[in-house]
Amino acid sequence: MSASEVTAEATVVHVNLRDTQSMLEEGVIASLELNKVDYAVERNKSLRARYYFGIIFLIMNLVAWFFRDYGQSVLLPFIHYIKVCGNEGDDCFHSLGVLRVSLGCYIFFLVMFLTTVKTRKLCEHQNLWHSGWWEVKSVLLLVSMALPFFFPSELVQIYGEIARIGAGIFLLLQLVSVIHFITWWNKYWTPDEERKQRCSLGLFLSTMFYVASISGIVYLYTSYASRTSCSLNIFFITWTVILLAAMMVISLNSKVNRGLLSSGIMASYVVFLCWNAIRSEPATIRCETKNQEKGNSSWITILGFLIAIFAIVMAAFSTGIDSKCFQFSKNKVEHEDDIPYSYGFFHMVFSLGAMYFAMLFISWDLNSSARKWSIDVGWISTWVKVINEWFAATIYIWMLISPVVRHNRVMDNDGTVQETADSVMA
After folding, report:
1. Boundaries of every domain in the chain
2. Model's pTM, two decimal places?
């Protein structure tokens, strides 16, 4: 074989190898692009699944309301085997009906929590179960809702006692989520050199929130504490004013220096909680200047009830998708195939939310018989909301002063170490 033939053959081999390598590279790139498309599709399915679970939760709220207000007249003749308390079950049929629906909702989301809690990647089978298989999950939901109606009333009462604790945990998670949002909002509108408009708009928002807070305080005093006999309302509102002043002073302290925006938003939220607590007082002793309770079926009552229902659903939904603010490690690297939110935490929040809406429908009283179209009314509900307000303000104040406390502690430790080193050197 001549040298020219050898050279030509080598050239052909080199060209073939180069073509093969390029084909392999194109295949790898095409595979990666296909995986990206698959990840995008799975991510969109996962994000849509949140709304489906939210709709399920809303339906469960409406079913619980139906059992409380109309279940006795519609369903009681067909379910004689359910043992309830009082004269022919009249005393606590309402609360037990709500608790049974809540227990069914809790079982459904508990099963979803246990089957998805370890999901980390979009390619895992748990992700497919979370985002799909809706026919199977519909059967699971129906079984979960029917099962509590075969439980004895004593077991349902025990669940009601546990539900009080679960509802309290839900309120705590909701507070942390709200405060996390306020912190993010404050950082977003913090003035910087590149965006001067943020500074002016942030100042405008701070002013608006404080004006709203002060207006709310004036409204509370004039509407619910106009007489000296309304001593409890006067105490609630006055203590709210003290909390507002404390938050503002601490925020403007030179060592804290958090500005007025976050404290203004928190002030408005605390005033809203105070108003909501006073509105939960029994209507006969609410100390209103004008009696607004004209009828159980007035459009104001119905509208307020529907708004409360949607508020419960939105609270569970927004807290469930806000799992990042509850992570202990903030340095976790996110990858393309990671799930967009924590499925386990999402379903856990909804299971606690099932306990929460049960407590609202029965006003935290397991033997209550609430009025139609009412929600979360009674002295127990009032004190739960008042304590929730005080706890929210306490968490926020601690969030403001905790960096200063930790810094002072570190400085003290450094000073002690330095003094020990100096004594050893001497």
Report:
1. 54-327+335-414
2. 0.75
